[in-house]
Structures are given as structure tokens and as C-alpha cells.
Write a structure and sequence with these properties.
MetI-like fold; about 325 residues; mainly alpha; 2 domains
């Protein structure tokens, strides 16, 4: 009788959150964290965050600072007293940055879309057992991860194809990536074969299976690959140095390298107004080159979670 009366009391008693956490630590054999260690970790994290945030904020503040303040402080500004968009108006009014931004947007969108399409088609064909020459093609893909043709053979190939001073010279050389093909192939291999067999029984072809089954179940890996390609195309400038001769076809990163790294004066039409300092113009170009990726990433991060939930199919 005593035991029977004690069990309901044990079930109805609900310890507090701290007691429950302490009980779990005792069960797992873990010791409670030391306040000194936790404080030290917090200080280290704050220092690491400051090392990232402070330079970024300094770039933004300098681009927004009043020209008189930039000249008075003789360099980077940490807090603009009278924020102004004069530097941004100057670089966009000149036309060089506007045209370069449009070129980069075009190359990024077209290149990322074509790259994801080509990678998905090749990865799907390599993931299907019995595909013609799949093992040999897979060996060739793996071979490209170890050996590269080099800069001169690539330049000669682009020249023979007639792509010099063409936008396609900024897209085609980095259209496919062996690592992305292997990654997507592995993701396709994890899709249960029963789903594909059921689709074939219903009369679906390979292309329909890829577009209606494999792609919706692989949104996570597709979002990751799309983000990798978008960042690669947006930040690429070396291909433009090699293959682009006309300055009006320069992407934004090449303009950024020319004006910021090389120290070339920014050509800005201010229509008789006070010319912003070169440092403000350079920081404004730098901010313009960073903003698109920072704006796109949160939306792709949402698709990461959705793709993982949709792709969680069990056989």
C-alpha cells in the first residue's frame, strides 16, 4: 500500500527547469559549466565577432560619411556624423559601376541557372545503374578534381571557340564542377528506388522522373549548389582579366579590383558638385558588391530547411 501511494506522487511531481537540467547532467555524467569558463568563451566570441563586424561597419560608415568628415579624419570613419549618399550617387551617375553591376547580375543569373541544370542532368545520369558509360564518365569527372589543364590551354580553347571578349567567356569555363556533380549524385542515390520504379510503371520517362521527382526531393542540395555557383560567378574577376578586352563588359568585381586594389581613381560624374573623396567612392563600390549576396542568402537559407523536410523520404 505504501508503494502504491508513493508512485502517483512520483509521477505527479514535476521538477523545475533547472532541476530537470541538473538531473540530466547528472545522468549523462556531465559536470555543470564553470562560470569563469563560460565568461571566457563569451569574451572570445565577442572579440571574434568584433573582428568581423568592425571592419565591415567601417566600410559602410566611410561610404556614408560626409566628404568633409572623411577629409578631416584622414581615413576610415567609424561613425558618420551627417550620413549622405553622395558617394553612391557619384559612382552610379558615372555609369561605370551601373554597367558593371548589370553585367555581374547577368553573368550570375545565367551562369548559376545553366550550371545547376548541367550538374543535375549529369549527376542524374551517373546515379542511374546501367547508364551507358556511367562508370567511365564518373572516372573522368573524378580525374578533373586531381588534374587541371592550366591557364594557357584554357585560354587557347576559349580563343579557338571565338569567345574572347564575350560574356560566354565568363560563364562557360566554370559551368561545371566535379565536386558538385559528386555531391548531387550522392543525393540522388539516396532517393528510394521504389519511387522511381513506381514512376516508370506509370509511364514516366527519365526526364520526367528528374523534373517531377528527383528535383523536388533534392531542393536542399540544389539550393546549396545554386548558392555556391552564384557566389563564384559574382566574385569572379580573373576570367574577365584573361578573356575580356572591352572595359564596358567588365563585371563589378573587376571594377572593384581596378578602383580599390590597384588604387585607380574612380571616374564619377558629379555635375559640378563637391567630389566625394576617393576613399568614400571605393568603399561605396565595395558595399555595392557585397549587398546582393547578403540579400539573397536569407532566402536560400529558407529553401535549405524546406528541401531537407521534403527530401526526408524513407524507403
Amino acid at each position: 500500500m505504501t508503494q502504491a501511494t508513493q508512485r502517483p506522487n512520483a509521477r505527479t511531481s514535476k521538477p523545475g527547469g533547472s532541476d530537470r537540467a541538473s538531473q540530466m547532467r547528472l545522468i549523462n555524467g556531465a559536470k555543470p559549466p564553470n562560470p569563469v569558463v563560460r565568461g571566457l568563451k563569451g569574451v572570445i566570441l565577442l572579440i571574434a565577432c568584433a573582428m568581423v563586424v568592425v571592419p565591415f561597419w567601417s566600410v559602410i560608415a566611410t561610404s556614408l560619411a560626409d566628404p568633409a568628415q572623411v577629409l578631416a579624419e584622414g581615413g576610415y570613419v567609424m561613425w558618420p556624423k551627417e550620413p549622405t549618399l553622395a558617394a553612391y550617387e557619384a559612382i552610379f551617375r558615372g555609369g561605370v559601376v551601373t554597367r558593371a553591376t548589370l553585367v555581374s547580375i547577368f553573368v550570375t543569373l545565367v551562369g548559376s541557372g545553366l550550371s545547376v541544370t548541367v550538374v543535375a542532368l549529369l549527376a542524374y545520369s551517373l546515379s542511374r545503374p546501367g547508364s551507358f558509360g556511367s562508370s567511365k564518365i564518373l572516372l573522368l569527372v573524378l580525374f578533373t578534381m586531381l588534374f587541371n589543364a592550366g591557364m594557357i590551354p584554357n585560354y587557347l580553347l576559349i580563343k579557338e571557340l571565338g569567345l574572347i571578349d564575350s560574356y560566354w567567356a565568363l560563364i562557360l569555363p566554370t559551368l561545371t564542377n566535379a565536386f558538385q556533380i559528386i555531391l548531387m549524385r550522392g543525393f540522388f542515390l539516396e532517393v528510394p528506388g521504389e519511387i522511381i520504379d513506381a514512376a516508370r510503371i506509370d509511364g514516366a520517362g527519365e526526364l520526367r522522373i528528374l523534373t517531377t521527382i528527383m528535383v523536388p526531393l533534392s531542393k536542399a542540395v540544389i539550393a546549396v549548389i545554386a548558392l555556391f555557383n552564384a557566389v563564384t560567378y559574382w566574385n569572379a574577376f580573373f576570367n574577365a582579366v584573361l578573356y575580356i578586352n572591352s572595359t564596358e563588359k567588365w563585371p563589378l568585381q573587376l571594377v572593384l579590383r581596378t578602383y580599390v586594389v590597384d588604387g585607380t581613381a574612380v571616374q564619377a560624374d558629379v555635375s559640378g558638385e563637391m567630389v566625394p573623396p576617393q576613399l568614400s567612392l571605393q568603399m561605396a563600390i565595395l558595399v555595392v558588391s557585397l549587398v546582393p549576396i547578403c540579400l539573397v542568402y536569407p532566402f536560400l537559407q529558407k529553401h535549405f530547411a524546406q528541401g531537407v523536410v521534403i527530401g526526408a523520404v524513407k524507403g
